[in-house]
């Protein structure tokens, strides 16, 4: 993509700058998402690809049945096109991020496709879904090990708040990557239960990763913030900027009351993208802080299921926790706004943590 620009506009030096290309990619992604939205809604309606709702959810949720889902395809298109257009395609890090996101999207696509085909909310059996996520996670882990053999990547683990603590996981990095990616893709998937909730929380996390990728790839900033300086990570800033733009464009149609849902093709891909970003820029352990809302949603399900199996009693009125908040009397827009406030605070805290060492 970039080469095209160099050929057409050799005098334009500005294209070299990561900041300029990130802004351009974000804007391109936003426009694609915004302009393709109505077409996407119409097309999915024609194919009768509508949401199938859990039976035990309230009447307000039953009204959502039939809203076009699989809008995640729009987010993916709006992310990938600007990334391919504005970034240096010889970069290995970039391809790991792109292919991981697409592969998680494929697992989600299969799940959505089966849900719609059978007209129930079950889709891909949970075990197969988890297996699919683990296979993709293993692929990413192996790619990272391959890169580390060639000196392009480090299997060391860096702890937020602790300078000295950097254990090298070696081969253990593979299961670590699988667990991290399965957790992050499932966490976004579980959060995707209210209009605009997952995408707005995701966009905040992606914006934090845009900043993190930029400083990681920048020699002076990385040195100043005591980060691992990963020069190739700079190109990931463009990928993250595209995610932010695509997310905002999708939110235009997904905000309450939603005209389009992302489906699992969206949530698994976005969760996978966040997890892969964390791995690539060596901020694996900062991920639960950057995406703390997702972590809390995942945790609420683990706690609820665990408590029910052990004691036969429930901790929350309903899991994931956003449904619990609805059942204690918060309106849907209120839950969404409050979770978004939390997401912004956690993202700011994660960026602030860079100096707390």
Q: What is the gyration radius calculated from CA atoms?
A: 20 Å
How far apart the termini lie comes to 39 Å
Tell me the major beta sheet: none
Helix count, per DSSP?
15
- The average pLDDT value, as a whole number, equals 91
Uncertain ranges:
none
Mass-distribution shape: globular
> Helix/strand-derived class?
mainly alpha
Give the % helix.
55-70%
> How are helices and strands ordered from N to C?
HHHHHHHHHHHHHHH
Strand content: under 5%
| Counted beta strands | 0
Description of the structure:
With 357 residues, the chain is mostly helical. The chain is built from 15 helices and no strands. α2 (18-46) runs parallel beside α10 and α6 (126-149) crosses α7 (173-191). The longest helix has 29 residues, at 18-46.
């Amino acid at each position: 993509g970039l080469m095209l620009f160099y050929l057409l506009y050799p005098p334009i030096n500005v294209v070299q700058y990561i900041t300029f290309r990130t802004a351009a990619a974000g804007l391109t992604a936003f426009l694609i998402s915004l302009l393709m939205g109505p077409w996407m809604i119409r097309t999915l309606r024609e194919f009768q690809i509508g949401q199938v709702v859990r039976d035990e959810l309230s009447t307000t949720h039953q009204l959502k049945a039939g809203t076009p889902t699989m809008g995640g395809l729009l987010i993916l298109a709006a992310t990938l096109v600007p990334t391919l257009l504005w970034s240096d395609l010889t970069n290995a890090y970039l391809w790991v991020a792109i292919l991981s996101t697409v592969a998680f999207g494929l697992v989600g696509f299969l799940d959505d496709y089966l849900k719609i085909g059978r007209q129930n909310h079950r889709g891909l059996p949970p075990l197969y879904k988890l297996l699919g996520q683990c296979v993709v996670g293993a692929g990413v882990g192996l790619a990272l090990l391959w890169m580390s053999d060639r000196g392009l990547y480090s299997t060391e683990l860096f702890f937020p708040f602790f300078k000295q603590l950097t254990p090298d996981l070696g081969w253990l990095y593979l299961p670590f990557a699988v667990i991290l990616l399965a957790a992050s893709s499932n966490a976004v998937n579980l959060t995707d239960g209210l209009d605009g909730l997952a995408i707005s929380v995701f966009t905040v996390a992606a914006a934090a990763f845009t900043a993190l990728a930029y400083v990681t790839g920048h020699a002076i900033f990385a040195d100043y913030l005591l980060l691992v300086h990963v020069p190739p990570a700079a190109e990931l800033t463009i990928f993250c900027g595209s995610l932010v733009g695509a997310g905002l464009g999708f939110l235009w149609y997904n905000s309450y009351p939603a005209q389009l849902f992302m489906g699992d093709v969206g949530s698994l891909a976005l969760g996978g993208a966040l997890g892969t970003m964390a791995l690539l820029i060596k901020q694996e352990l900062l991920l639960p802080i950057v995406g703390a809302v997702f972590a809390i949603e995942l945790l609420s399900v683990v706690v609820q299921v665990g408590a029910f199996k052990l004691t036969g009693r429930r901790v929350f009125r309903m899991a994931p926790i956003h449904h619990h908040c609805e059942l204690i009397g918060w309106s849907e827009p209120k839950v969404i706004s409050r979770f978004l406030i939390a997401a912004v605070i956690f993202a700011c805290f994660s960026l602030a943590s860079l100096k707390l060492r």
